[in-house]
Amino acid sequence: MILVLLGLPVKAHSARPPTWVKEQINYVSSHAPVPSSDQVGWTILSSEIHVALNEQGRLSFTYRKIWRLNDLKEQSLSILLPYDDTQQALSGPMVWVQKRRSWKNQKLKGQSVDVPDLSGPLVTGGRRLVISTDAVAPGRVVAASWTLTDRLEFPSTRVFSPLETLSVERFKVTADSNVRLFYNPVDGAVRDVTTGGLELWGLPSASPADARADAWRRSPLDAFPIVTVMRGDVAKQSWPDLALRVRALFDQALLEEADHGGPDYPNLAHELSGHLESRDEKIAALTAFVQSLTYRNIAWGAGAYTPDHPTEVLRTMSADCKAKTLLLHGLLEQIGVASTPVLVRLDQQYLAYSGPPTVSIFNHVVLAIHDGVMPEESTRLKQGPGRGSVLIDATDPIALLGATPYGLLGSEGLWLGEGGGLFKIEVSTPPSQQHARLTVDMDGFEKARFRLEITGGAELVRLVGQHVDAASGRLTNRSRRIIQQRFSMTVSGLVPDEIMYMAADQFLASPASLVMSGYIDLPAARLSGDRYAVGGLLKALAVSLDIPLEGYDDFSRWSDEEAGPDFRSARCCSAKQTRLLGEVELNVPEGWQVESWPRFEDISADWVEASVSSPESGARWTIKVEGHSGDFGDQSQAARRRDMNQIAKVLRGRVILTSTVP
Question: Chain-centre distance of CA 640, in angstroms?
């Protein structure tokens, strides 16, 4: 991660760089073309990682990187090193900056900063060291080296990717003889690269458009090779064994809690649910309480896999997904409801992973509740060790019992219980996750009264829900700005004068919803004396269902949207299943009728199914879209782009009205 930061205390003095700096620069120059000076910004000429075991058997990672400035003006280079100083030891870093024919050695003394999660009002316990250089002249290079060593034993193999915000000319990873390396390429079988390591050239950056042959197969975040680091015999590694080791961390946290006089679970569970009669209501009440706690992101060090004790969660009223899941598991146990934690992932970065068992491919934890829950059989897991259970996300404040947590259908989970192992997350009948209904009453051909109701997992509903005043339940100024920004770029004439947000109701199993009403511009083109083409109606529907009106022709737009810091899922052909239902009801002025609606032939493909129904009577128009999960191999990207652009085209289309007056 590269940022320009000013005013950091940096010491510098003249020094010769280590021999590896010049060796790597010369090696890159002789094996690959060095970026020309007319390119913008920084490029990583070489990135080397060496993995070793120390005397205590802890993994250590030594990084050696060289940057070159390709800009036409001087710039400062700032390097952020993510690490947890309570769980990892840092040696270095040392930085060398080229100054004409000489070099200067720069070293930052103990300067660390707390880094909050930038995607929302969250709390974080992470730290990152910041190294910042003086201004560097165009064409000059900066070299740095540092070592991170684990203080605690990681519970499984480690996975990392040479994922950078900058393009990388050369990437190499090596390891000591007692450490195994496996390479899991984007396409192809996993291979052992322990001997000689792995060397790759010309890796694209995460942000700009990349040159992959098939930009639809996976998101840019999955365009990079995956390297697995492990100790011991790979033949002795298994997903069930890994599940038991990770579950032991959860069980140990509860045992230590009891030993230290932790929270009084029976009393807490009774206070939260004792006044309720049914088992379902009690489960819903305990779930809602845990979901209401502030989310705290811990993404590295031991905090990446060891949950906080419930005492700490209740003391701070905040937790990450692991600790929230552990707390809910403990509370449910007190009312006689059995549950099991499940490791899952909320993105598709490791969709094609087939390497040794590791927890590194997961980035989230949910809870499987086994009995006493309200959903029908169609919403329960239909395979794996948790067959018949219901998943609930203790982190997501709008997740509901009976609705599979957002973004998990079609992906894999790791069951942390008896018979634990990998299983595919599927239910018999996936729920409709997003529903939008637009009603428009036309008085003329310039403005119309509208009512728009958005229900379920739509991104707009989720964003607004994060900015609702907790005390009053009312929308904040921030939430209103979010709504305005979402519609201003595509439906410029939509002006809501009344907005209501309704939170998810665990007792009624109803999802969160957002209802708006107001006025909308209707740009109308007169086709003839008695025929008008009215546009803009369906654009509001597209925004509500997270379907981009611009389509998918521009790969750079795809990459910018999907590889950013708020990345959750690709909009098409990903590891997600998204069921969409959009409805439009148009009430036309007296003396007019709907002649035609935008439509297309039904789409039925491996990656998406979609249909449009025109009204046989009245003026209700319906679109259904269901994205499928999977890795579609060499199937045509052109076909996938065509299908999604058909849907986007329909939502850009116009309604033709004709006069009924003779």
Answer: 22
Q: If you compute the radius of gyration of the chain from its CA atoms, what whole number of angstroms results?
A: 27
Q: Which among 42, 88, 30, 36 is positioned nearest to 63, based on CA atoms?
A: 88
Rounded-to-integer distance, Cα 625 and Cα 631, Å: 19
Residue that is written with structure tokens 């990770």 in the block? 246
Cα–Cα distance measured from residue 207 to residue 550, given in angstroms and rounded to the nearest whole number: 19
The 10 Å Cβ neighbour count of residue 334 is 18
> What confidence score (pLDDT) does residue 366 get?
93
C-alpha–C-alpha distance, residues 28 and 315, integer Å? 53
**Per residue in 538-565, pLDDT tens?**
888 888 887 877 766 544 333 333 332 2
Ranges 1-5, 283-287, 541-545, 589-593, most confident:
283-287
In this structure, what DSSP letter does residue 412 have? Answer: E
Strand 127-132 with 78-83, pairing: antiparallel
- Of the candidates 186, 178, 144, 137, the one whose C-alpha atom is nearest the C-alpha of residue 161 is 186
Pairing mode, if any, of strands 318-319 and 294-297?
parallel
Q: Which long-range contacts (C-beta less than 8 Å, at least 24 apart) are formed by 164-167?
A: 164/44, 164/47, 164/203, 164/205, 164/206, 165/1, 165/2, 165/205, 165/206, 165/207, 166/2, 166/41, 166/42, 166/43, 166/44, 166/67, 166/205, 167/43, 167/44, 167/202, 167/203, 167/204, 167/205, 167/208
Closest CA to 227 of 155, 156, 160, 157: 160
Structure-block tokens of residue 255: 């045992």
| HSE (side-chain half, CA atoms, 13 Å) at 286 | 32
Question: Which pair of structure tokens corresponds to residue 155?
Answer: 């519970």
Residue 298 and residue 125 in contact, taking contact as beta carbons nearer than 8 Å: yes
Cα 194 to Cα 181: distance, rounded to the nearest angstrom: 5
Tokens of 4: 């320009």
Residue 504 pLDDT: 73
User: What value, to the nearest 5°, has the Cα angle with vertex 484 and ends 581 and 612?
Assistant: 20
Residues 425, 404: Cα–Cα separation, whole Å: 9
Q: Which amino acid is at 633?
A: G
